[in-house]
Design brief:
Layout: H1 24-29, H2 37-43, E1 51-52, H3 65-77, H4 91-101, E2 110-113, H5 115-127, E3 133-138, H6 142-150, E4 154-161, E5 164-165, H7 167-177, E6 181-184, H8 198-210, E7 214-218, E8 243-248, E9 260-263, H9 267-280, H10 285-296, H11 299-325, E10 340-344, H12 351-360, E11 363-364, E12 366-367, E13 380-384, H13 390-404
Parallel strand pairs: 1-11, 3-4, 3-6, 6-7, 7-8
Antiparallel strand pairs: 2-9, 4-5, 8-9, 10-13, 12-13
Helix pairs in contact: 3-10, 5-6, 5-9, 7-8, 11-13
The structure holds pyridoxal-5'-phosphate.
Pyridoxal-5'-phosphate (PLP) binds near residues 56 and 115.
């Protein structure tokens, strides 16, 4: 119906979409762009045609899917699976995590979290305040860098070598910055694959204790010894509550099982428990129960055995293929476990350019610069053998050789 004097109207056709005008958000959001954007690639499932050397998660062939399906079905049938439970987590699962961290811990020392990432985020947000320093080994896990930045912390990178972080450099950083928080991965660090040497453990713990600081020990590769056993967690040698130990199940089981344990001693645990309550109350009981059932199933040690066999085979395939096809690249001594190799590119090659060229050929690799809090000291690629089988790893090295080698270096 028309009404004289009411102006003209343009009818929107049914089904037509009007582009939303979200330009107002630019002003409302201000400038914190890019926080955690690099993590999107970490959790994106790669399309089937792609060779995923950028993923530290196991591919489905190596995940204990049978154990997981049975455990989850059982957990879902129990009424407790859908109820509230102690906010710190399922007591039996906490006892399991406590025993892994060291003989002096009990279930009371453990807080169950929604995976390792949520634990890191909680530690940085609830123990640090914006503007405060946090010490990180260099290079280190992109997700830890992102979580620390999101918490407003100032990253203080500390160098290491083939034996792990340098205790003197850590002490120096503690002295200079007054940091009360440090984040390390003593076992098969992500990305460099380094194990902290036994002789550095005491001096490092002493430096942390002298400075009244907390050390977050991210034991993300706990189950991934592929050779002689690596030393027990630093937490097991810490008597006075300096170490906050983190153990996630995403790597040895499956990325979708969002369950991890934080182990700590003293009032810091209450701080974290209260902080986590304000974050998301508690972790789905079904997942906690399923996780416990998988860890205590008779098939668990069989799973770990076949996982390690497969990873040894994959690692050998990748190391061999790099030696054969990429002689201009430098590979440090093969780590005795873990899921990554840390490859130094020849002079003139830029990590991001190589990664882009590889992606164009359906090969995903991680450019090294993302793992440094500051300027990288060289050009590196992180290559994971968790999600690709030996033929795919061989093909990956061939593709990289074609990009990097043959006198055709890629420069940025
Ligand atoms: C070193 C390290 N810590 C923690 C995490 C977090 O993993 P999640 O949240 O799946 O436990 C990752 C994931 O890749 C990692 O590499």
């Amino acid at each position: 119906m028309t009404r004289p004097g009411s102006g003209t109207y343009t009818a929107v056709k049914p089904g037509a979409t009007v582009a939303a005008d979200v330009s107002w958000q630019t002003l409302a959001l201000g400038s914190r762009a890019g926080l955690g954007a690099e993590l999107e690639r970490l959790v994106e499932a790669p399309p089937p045609e792609v060779i995923p050397l950028s993923s530290g998660f196991l591919d489905e062939r190596l995940q204990p899917l049978g154990l997981l399906a049975a455990a989850t079905a059982r957990a879902a049938r129990r009424p407790q699976g859908w109820n509230r439970l102690p906010a710190q987590g399922l007591p039996e699962l906490r006892a399991h995590f406590a025993a892994e961290a060291g003989a002096s811990f009990t279930a009371a020392n453990v807080l169950v979290t929604t995976g390792g990432q949520a634990a890191l985020s909680a530690v940085f947000r609830h123990l640090g305040a914006p503007g405060e320093p946090v010490i990180v080994e260099s290079p280190t896990y992109v997700g830890a860098l992102a979580a620390a930045r999101a918490a407003g912390l100032v990253l203080v990178p500390v160098p290491g070598d083939a034996q792990g972080v340098l205790p003197d450099a850590l002490e120096d950083a503690l002295d200079r910055t007054g940091a009360r928080l440090a984040y390390l991965q003593p076992r098969f660090s992500n990305p460099a694959g380094v194990v902290l040497a036994p002789q550095r453990r005491g001096p490092l713990l002493e430096a942390i204790a002298r400075h009244g600081a907390f050390l977050v020990e991210d034991d993300w590769m706990r189950d991934f010894d592929l050779g002689p056993p690596t030393p027990p967690p630093l937490a097991s040698a810490d008597e006075h509550g300096h170490v906050i130990y983190l153990r996630s199940l995403s790597k040895p089981i499956a990325p979708g099982l969002r369950v991890a344990g934080l182990v700590a001693r003293g009032p810091v645990l209450a701080r974290l428990r209260h902080g986590r309550l304000s974050d998301d109350l508690f972790v789905a009981p079904v997942l906690q129960q399923a996780a416990l059932d998988v860890l205590t199933a008779p098939g668990w040690s069989r799973h770990l055995g076949s996982l390690r066999r497969a990873l040894r085979e994959r690692r050998a395939a990748l190391v061999g293929a790099i030696g054969r096809f990429l002689p201009g690249c430098v590979l440090p001594p093969t780590p005795p476990g873990g899921v990554h190799l840390w490859l130094r590119l020849p002079d003139g090659c830029q990590d991001t350019s190589v990664a882009e060229a590889a992606a164009a050929r359906d090969l995903l690799v991680s450019p090294g610069r993302e793992y440094f809090a500051g300027e990288p000291p060289g050009e590196f690629l992180r290559l994971s053998y968790a999600a690709a089988d030996p033929p795919a790893l061989l093909r990956a090295a061939e593709i990289l050789a074609e990009i990097v080698g043959a006198g055709a270096p890629v420069t940025g």
